[in-house]
Write a sequence for this structure.
C-alpha cells in the first residue's frame, strides 16, 4: 500500500515528467500556448487564494486593495488592446464567457445560430442532444450557420436565407454567434450584420482562438464590423494564462456585468486576472510582431506540408490567415491514429472532424482530419525555416513510416534550441522549466 507521502511524491514525479516531455516535443495544439515566466510568476502569487466578488471598487469582500488596482489595470489595458468601450475580465474561461453572454442576451427557448462542430464550431455553442453548453445548460435551440466547404467559411447568401427562413417559421434567431475552433479565415460579420439585426438578433463573436490576432490588428476587428459582444479565451493566440473575458459596448455593460456576477462566477480566479494583466502589457509591446510571425508560420507550415504530399485545405486561398491549418488526412489514414502515431514521435497535434465527415460516416474518434496551430512554436521563437523542419518530421512519421524512436530523438535534438519564451520583457527561466518551491 502506498503511503500518503508516496502518493504525494508520485504526483510530483508525474508533473516533472510532463515538463520534461514538453521540453522535448513540438506543441501544435491550436488552442494552446505557453505563457511567459512573468505570467507564470503572477499566477502563483497570493492573489490565487483570495475572494473578490463583484466589480473592482464595489467588492463583497475586504482585502481587495491591491486586487482592485490590478483588475482596473487589466480592464484598462484590455480596452486599449481591443479598442472596446466595455470589458469584463471576470469570466474564468471562454465557455464561462459564452455562458455569461447567452445569459445577458437570450432567454431559454430562444434560437441560437452558430457553426456546427464538424464545421469548426465549439461545443459551448452546441445542441442539447450533443450536451452542448448553449443547448444543455442554457436551453437554447441551436440552428447551424451554413459553411462553404471549399472556402472554409460561412456562406453569406445561405446564412441570409437561413435567417429569413427561421424568421418566417416564427423562430427568428435571437443570437448569432460567429467564431470557431477551426478558424482560418475572418468570418463575414459586416456582410451579415444588417440581416441579423433586421430580425432583432444580437451579433456575437467568439474570439477564443483569435483574440491575440485581433488585439494585434492581424485578423478582423469584430467590434468595428458590427459585433455587439465578443467573448474570449485569453490563452490560445493571446499570451495567457488560461482565463476568459467579454468585450462590448457601454450600452450593454450593466447586463453583462450582472450575467457574469452573480450569474456565472463567484470567485473569478484573481491570480489569473493578475497574469492576464501582465500578458496585456506584453501584448501591447510585442503583439504586432508576434501575430504577424504567427500568420507567416502558419502559411509556411501549410505550404511545406502541402509540398510534401499532405492535403492541406484551402490551398487556393493560401491555406490560412490565422494560426490554424486543417488537413484532410484520409489519404494517409484516420485522424485518431495519426494523432496517436505523431504523439509517439513527440509531435503533439489533434484529430479533427472535417465539415463533411459525419455525412461520410466518420466519427470524432477517427475523423478525416487533423488540425495544427502555430501559436506556441511561434512563441518559442520558431520562424519559417523551422516550419519546414516540422513538416519534414511529420512526413517522416506519416508518409516515410520511419522508426518512431528515431524521429523522436531527432525532434528532441531539434527542440534543444527553442527553450525560451519570446515576445516578452524577461525570460531568464526556460519555457517549460519545472519550478520547485517546496
Ligand atoms: C476553446 C474555445 C472555447 C472555450 O474556451 P475555454 O477557455 O477552453 O473555456 C470557446 N469557444 C471556442 C470557439 C473555442 O475554440
Amino acid at each position: 500500500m502506498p503511503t500518503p507521502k508516496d502518493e504525494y511524491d508520485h504526483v510530483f514525479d508525474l508533473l516533472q515528467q510532463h515538463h520534461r516531455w514538453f521540453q522535448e516535443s513540438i506543441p501544435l495544439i491550436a488552442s494552446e500556448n505557453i505563457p511567459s515566466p512573468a505570467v507564470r510568476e503572477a499566477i502563483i502569487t497570493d492573489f490565487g487564494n483570495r475572494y473578490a466578488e463583484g466589480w473592482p471598487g464595489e467588492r463583497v469582500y475586504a482585502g481587495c486593495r491591491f486586487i482592485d488596482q490590478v483588475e482596473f489595470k487589466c480592464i484598462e489595458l484590455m480596452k486599449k488592446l481591443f479598442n472596446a468601450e466595455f470589458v469584463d475580465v471576470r469570466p474564468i474561461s471562454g465557455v464561462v464567457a459564452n455562458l455569461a453572454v447567452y445569459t445577458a442576451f437570450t432567454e431559454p427557448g430562444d434560437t441560437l445560430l452558430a457553426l456546427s462542430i464538424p464545421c469548426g464550431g465549439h461545443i459551448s455553442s452546441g445542441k442539447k442532444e450533443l450536451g452542448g453548453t448553449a443547448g444543455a445548460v442554457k436551453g437554447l435551440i441551436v440552428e447551424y450557420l451554413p459553411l462553404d466547404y471549399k472556402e472554409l467559411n460561412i456562406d453569406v447568401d445561405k446564412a441570409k436565407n437561413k435567417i429569413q427562413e427561421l424568421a418566417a417559421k416564427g423562430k427568428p434567431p435571437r443570437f448569432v454567434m460567429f467564431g470557431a475552433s477551426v478558424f482560418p479565415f475572418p468570418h463575414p460579420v459586416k456582410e451579415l450584420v444588417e440581416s441579423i439585426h433586421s430580425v432583432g438578433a444580437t451579433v456575437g463573436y467568439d474570439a477564443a482562438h483569435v483574440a491575440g490576432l485581433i488585439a494585434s490588428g492581424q485578423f478582423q476587428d469584430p467590434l468595428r464590423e458590427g459585433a455587439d459582444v465578443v467573448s474570449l479565451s485569453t490563452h490560445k493566440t493571446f499570451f495567457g494564462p488560461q482565463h476568459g473575458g467579454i468585450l462590448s459596448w457601454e450600452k450593454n455593460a450593466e447586463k453583462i456585468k450582472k450575467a457574469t456576477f452573480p450569474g456565472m462566477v463567484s470567485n473569478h480566479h484573481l491570480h489569473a486576472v493578475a497574469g492576464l494583466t501582465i500578458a496585456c502589457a506584453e501584448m501591447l509591446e510585442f503583439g504586432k510582431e508576434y501575430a504577424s510571425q504567427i500568420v507567416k508560420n502558419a502559411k509556411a507550415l501549410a505550404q511545406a506540408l502541402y509540398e510534401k504530399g499532405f492535403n492541406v485545405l484551402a490551398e487556393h486561398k493560401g491555406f490560412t490567415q490565422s494560426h490554424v491549418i486543417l488537413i484532410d488526412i484520409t489519404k494517409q489514414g484516420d485522424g485518431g491514429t495519426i494523432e496517436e502515431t505523431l504523439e509517439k514521435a513527440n509531435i503533439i497535434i489533434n484529430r479533427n472532424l472535417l465539415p463533411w465527415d459525419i455525412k461520410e460516416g466518420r466519427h470524432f474518434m477517427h475523423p478525416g482530419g487533423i488540425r495544427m496551430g502555430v501559436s506556441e512554436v511561434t512563441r518559442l521563437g520558431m520562424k519559417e525555416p523551422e516550419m519546414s523542419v516540422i513538416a519534414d518530421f511529420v512526413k517522416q512519421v506519416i508518409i516515410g513510416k520511419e522508426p518512431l524512436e528515431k524521429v523522436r530523438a531527432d525532434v528532441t535534438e531539434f527542440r534543444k534550441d527553442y527553450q525560451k519564451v519570446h515576445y516578452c520583457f524577461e525570460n531568464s527561466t526556460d519555457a517549460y522549466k519545472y519550478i520547485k518551491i517546496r
About this structure: The chain has 15 helices and 15 strands.
